[in-house]
Structures are given as C-alpha cells and as structure tokens.
Amino acid sequence: MKHTVLRLTAIAAVCAGWPLAAMAEDIRDPMNVVVVSGTRAEHTSFDLPAAIDVVDAAQIGDTQLRVNASEALVAVPGIVVRNRENYAQDLQISSRGFGTRSAFGVRGVRLVADGIPATMPDGQGQAATFNLDLAERIEVLRGPFSALYGNHSGGVVQLFTRAPTDKPTIEASFAGGSYGQRKFDTNASGRSGGIGYLLDASRFETDGYRDHSAATRKQAYAKLVVKPSSTSRLVLTASGLRQDDTQDPLGVTWATYQRDPRAGEIDTTDTQTPQRTLADRYDTRKSIDHQQFGATYEQRFGDDDRLQVTAYGGNRRVIQYQSFSRGFQAPSSHSGGVIDFDRDFYGVDANWRAVRQVAGGTMRATAGLELARSKDARQGFENFVGDTFGVKGNLRRDEQNEVTSVDPYVQVEWERDRWVLSGGVRHSRVDFDVEDRYLSNGDDSGGTDFRHTTPLVGVLYKVSPTLNVYASAARGFETPTMNESFYSGTGGGFNFALEPAIGTHLEAGVKAMVANGVRVNAAVFQVKTKDELVVDASSGGRTSYRNAGATLRQGGELSVDAELGAGWNARLALSMLHAVYDEAFGAVPKGSRLPGLPKSSFYGEFGWREAAGRYGAALETIANSKVYAEDSNTATPAPGYAIVNARVQASQQLGGWKLRQFARLNNLFDRDYVGSVIVGDTNRRYYEAAPGRNWILGVSAQYQFR
Fold this sequence. Notes:
Blueprint: H1 2-16, E1 34-35, E2 43-44, E3 51-56, H2 57-61, H3 70-73, E4 79-82, E5 92-95, E6 109-113, E7 116-117, E8 135-142, E9 155-161, E10 169-177, E11 181-192, E12 195-206, E13 215-226, E14 232-247, H4 254-259, H5 278-282, E15 285-301, E16 305-321, E17 338-358, E18 361-381, E19 384-385, E20 388-389, E21 395-416, E22 419-436, E23 446-464, E24 467-478, E25 501-515, E26 518-530, E27 533-539, E28 542-547, E29 551-565, E30 568-581, E31 600-609, E32 615-624, E33 641-654, E34 657-666, E35 674-677, E36 687-689, E37 694-704
Parallel strand pairs: 6-9
Antiparallel strand pairs: 1-2, 3-8, 4-5, 6-7, 8-9, 10-11, 10-37, 11-12, 12-13, 13-14, 14-15, 15-16, 16-17, 17-18, 18-21, 19-20, 21-22, 22-23, 23-24, 24-25, 25-26, 26-29, 27-28, 29-30, 30-31, 31-32, 32-33, 33-34, 34-37, 35-36
C-alpha cells in the first residue's frame, strides 16, 4: 500500500509541476521503448526531443476486432480518431487539429506501414490499408519532427508488423458482435530455408449501426524476410484490400439525428416515395480494390553505418455512387454523381546513415531522397438513367491526373553528455498535372507545382537519468490534395488557384519516470498557419476547398502509464487544444473555432492482469468536448460526451496450443452521441451518430509446431 501511495503521489507531483530530480532514489531507469519515427533509425523514445507514443501489440489486438485503427489510437494524446460508422469513407484522423477537414480518408497526417507509405504523394492516405492483425506496434509522432516526412502538417502514424517466428506457427481467430459484426482471420508464420514468412487473410462483415451502412472488407498480407549476408537484410511485403459495394449512410441534419440517431436523411424531393432516404434513393456506395507491394533492402557497414533502399508500387480502383439530385446534374456540373478511377502509384526512398565522433560527442547523420508518383485514369458519370437513380449513366468526366513528388532530406543528431541536439531540412516539390479528355463542358487541362523547404531544430537536456526536458521548432508544409483541387465551388472545374498551407510549429516537453513503473510525458505546443485549407462547399460527397487566412493552434498533452503493483495498472491521456481562425475571412469572424476539433479529449483506463497473464479486465473512459461543424460556429455543435467501456480477457496454454478469449461491452451506459461530423456540409447534414451500447466476443487458437 505504501508503494502504491508513493506512485500516485508522484503522478500528482508531475501534474502539479513539482521538481522530480530529488525523487531519484525511489525511481528506476526509464522504460527502453525503441522507436524509428523521428530519426529513421532505432532510438529510445525517452531521449528523442519530440512527442511520440507507442501502441503495442497487446493494446492493438488482445481485446479488439482489429478492423479500425481508432480502436488502438484512442489512447494516444493529441490524436483524435473518429469512426464515422461508415466504411465507405474510412476513418477521420486528426493530429493537433490537422486532418479534420478531410471528407474521406486521412489528410494532414502521414501514414506508413512497414516503411511503405500508405499516403499518396499529394498527401491523401487510407488507414483502412493498415493490417492490424499482424501489428507489433504503432508509433505516433506529433509536432515539429513530423515536418521531416514531407507534405503534411500534423503528425506521422507508422505501423510495424511483427517479425516471423522461428518455429512454424498457425493461428485462427473469430470475433462477432452487435449490428451483425463478424470477423474471421487466419495467419501463419515461420522460417524455411533461411526465409522468414508471415501470411495473413481476413474477412470482416457488418450490417452497420446506421441505416444503409453495411460493409464487407477482405484483407490479405504477406511478408518475407531474407538475409543475403550477415550484414544485410531484404524485406518483401504485399497486401490487398477489397470492399465491394460498401454502403454510404451519408450525414444527417440535427433534427434527423435527434429524431433517430440511426436513421438516414429523408429525400424531400422524392414525391413518389416520401419517406425514402437519400442514401436509399441513390443507393450511395463505394467499391474499393487496392493492392500494393514493397521491398526494403538494408546493408550495414561496420557497427553503425547503413544504407537503406525502399521501393514500392500498387494499384487502387474505386467506384463511388454519390447523392446528387437531377437539379445538380445540370450541364455546368463538372463530373456527375459517379466517380470511377483507376490509380497506379509507385515510389522509392533511399537513405544513408553514418555515425561519427565529432567534437567530443556522437553525431548521427541521415541523408536521403524520396520520390513518389501516382497516375489516375478518372471518369465521372451521371448517377441516373431515366427515372432510375444509383446507376451509371452518361459520361460527364474523362481525364488523366498525375501527381509527382521529389523530396531530398538531411537529418543530423549530435549527443554529448547530457545534451542532444537535432536538426534537419527537407525540400519538397509536388507537381500536379491534369489532361482533360471530356471537352464538351470546357477544357480543364492544366497543372501546378508547389515547392517548400521545411527546416527543423530540436534540443533535449537530460536533467537526471529519469528526467528529460526538450524543445523543438519547425516549418510545416501542406499542399491541397488532388481531390481537394477537383472543384472550385459547387459544380465548378479544377481549382488550380489553391495555395499550400505553411505553418510554424513550436513544442516544449518533459519526459520522466516518476516512480517504479510510472512514466509521464507532457508537452505544450503552438502552431501558426497561413493560407489554411478549409472547406468551401460540401454536398452529397462532393467537397470543394479554399484558402482561409491565418489560424492558431495552442495546446497541451499529458500521458501517464503506471504499473501500480499486484497486477493493477492505469493509463491516462489528456489533450487540450485551442484552435481558432486568427484572421477573419468571408463571413467567418476572427476567433471562430476550427470545426471538427474538440477543445479537450480524455482517455482513462484502470485494469488488472493476473501475474502469469492468464486473466485480465479493465474499464475505459473516453470523453470529448463539443465539436463545431462549420467555420462560423453558428450551426448546432455536436455535444460533448463521455462513455465507459469494459473488457475481460483470458488465455490458456495447452501443449503447443495457445487459446485466447475476450469480451467487450462498449458504451456501457448506452449514451447517445455524435461520433463524427462532416465539416462544412452545404445542406447542413453534418452529423454521424456513434453506436449505443454494443458488445464484441472473440476467440483464437494458435498452434506452434515443435
């Protein structure tokens, strides 16, 4: 009991800002959590002058469906992940307020899986391509250091799959839950003939919580690890994602949400079927077929120097049916209500890392060049034939779109005694090129290019073996994506006038081991951005953008991980964010809150696990403050909420078999709340409801051959 009180007192001391160095006699060494984000080489996160958190395999997979990254990232401060309950539009991920404007997919945050970008060269990413079944860890980097990853502003989310096992292992798992959720996964791992292999295939189905939100997702992943020599390694990866006719429930107005959170918005123009929803009338849906491969070769020279080359390529095919009325299909409309594109993408990243003794300290330097390109064959069609909606009609768009990025970068770290100095610079060039082949509504061919240099400086001081303080600063760079450039206002053509957003990032933080098993990270930050990219108009799945004036983001983050003894543990993540327009634009006054962002977010967990790890249970609390849905802050904001989840788990070892079971009860008190908002929707259909009380049960069986 005495030790527990000491640990809890230590946590309170940090929150109150008390000196920590004097407690050294009661503290053990910091946890040696190793990360590669930030420096591109193995580095203890405790000694990195950046805000970075690691979500381990147990947090990702032990008591979750392993379908959405939101399941794992909810416990990371500074990150807000909105599950739209809409598998046609993917998750909405924001980092320190960057990314919420995205109408679909992930923008403002760079996604990487096993060193292969899951973000296209224009900055648009897809979290659905992450394979969570094989994940060993997810690293989440926020703040200035993310500037060294190029065209984005908020952060970097990197997933790493586990290494192949030495002995052959096979595993099968099944999980099911409310609203017809069911998932089956099987994987195999081992080594044969000097080649390590990791294979996985899964199928997920759901009837959907909201009306017209059913989905089926199939995923596959393969990883081969070869060691051509004692100083080299080659990793080959291949993955696939397929979703056929994934239903899109669309957003709803506040009145509809209050009437029935699960209901769709009624199509008031449908006189023949008065109560039919827009989603049903237009059969809004999306089909995705995504495949990619990658290869990473690493050659070491001596103990420290290293050459690494990563190459990748893939194809993404999407067909999407949107909800536009006949009136919006006028001749001036640019593309129609059906999007059909076929994208090829590829890239390479080559870098050299050297370690030398300089000026009495150790210098680690990395220099590299990253090239990426995507090429779309894009068509658009009317989404009706005669009086039938939700079918492919006349051609309205036909073009070739290309995006190319070229990014050289250099990063240096120098460490001596208690000081760690970091610096880096990256020069980004992103070129857009459009060849319009549908000329009856005018020729929208053209192109534009964006160039910017993003410098970074950081310093860390080791106050004691258990306390580090740091500060860092950088310039961020964020271009519009190709999708954000497609329309200039409702129904207009390409918007080549959009400018990139440029931000100045500042951060200061503390990392400390407060007591045995208690680690605390705290950071404060400020980001000033000019030419912020904001939603201009959004309707039925089509969104146009514009540049606003200056914005200001200021905030703080606190995370605490504590082992309290006797199997008890606790985790806390708290984020505060003041994000406002620092200049008026249009009808938006200065001081208006940026939409889609809660002012405060909280995650708390209190759990217990039996010493041998055979049994465990925990309670989780998730809370967010209210969120505005549009720039002027005049529409009804999505109210703040707090929910409680409960989970239990068990495992047994029977010879070569390892059996696992888990159960979750989410939203224990059955709260109604808005899970996400569609920012700036012209028809005020902003709101996307989250599920009420729901359950998940899962079992798995793993066998390891002797």
